[in-house]
Amino acid sequence: MNYRNRVVILRLAVADVAAVLQIIERCRREYGLEGRVESLLGPTDYALLETNARHRSGYFVAMEDGDIAGGAGIAPLEGEDPRTCELQRMYLRPQSRGHGTGHALLSACIQLALQLQFDKCYAETISEMTAAILFYKSHGFRRLPAPIGRTGHGHNDCWMLLQLAGASALLQKALD
Predict the structure, then answer these.
(1) Which helix (H) or strand (E) holds 121?
(2) What is the pTM of this model?
């Protein structure tokens, strides 16, 4: 069976929050964020449902065979042009990486961003997440020399931007 056929993308529901927070915490621990942040999960993580219920925002979960494999969302980038969104909290379980699940999540986020009339999508990460950086680059994100907006994530040291014009075609090409 095609792995991609086992992945279902859904909007975040109350029942999903605990599993998503567990994935986020495990991924942050995996990449050594304990020494760089006050806490692996902060107030904005715990407010995931509320944050993504705001205007021009949304969060998705990837389900693989009935289990939550990861999540990702978009929201307006605070302190930036209102036509720029931020890709937020894109994390996957280790066993779900490299099989198309991340692509499906990113595709859902980009489609929502286009529906909400965003022109650009900003992403931040840490340089240790080399696979994530390569993933973003393969989907059209370009590195920036400095952060934009006000994300409040001072521990991130890799900033990227995707021009959404033509992003749908790029996402489709990545699927082929």
Answers:
(1) strand 120-125
(2) 0.88
CB 27 within 8 A of CB 90: no
Task: List pLDDT tens digits, range 5-52.
Answer: 589 999 999 999 999 999 988 888 887 767 666 666 677 777 788 888
Superfamily of domain 3-175: Gcn5-related N-acetyltransferase (GNAT) (3.40.630.30)
Q: What is the SS3 assignment for 2-13? A: CHHHHEEEEECC
* Chain mean position to CA 60: 9
* Cα 59 from Cα 164, distance rounded (Å): 18
Instruction: Please give the full DSSP string across 51-105, using - where no structure is assigned.
Output: HTTSTT-EEEEEEETTEEEEEEEEEE-TTS-TTEEEEEEEEE-GGGTTTTHHHHH
Residue spans per domain, the chain: 3-175
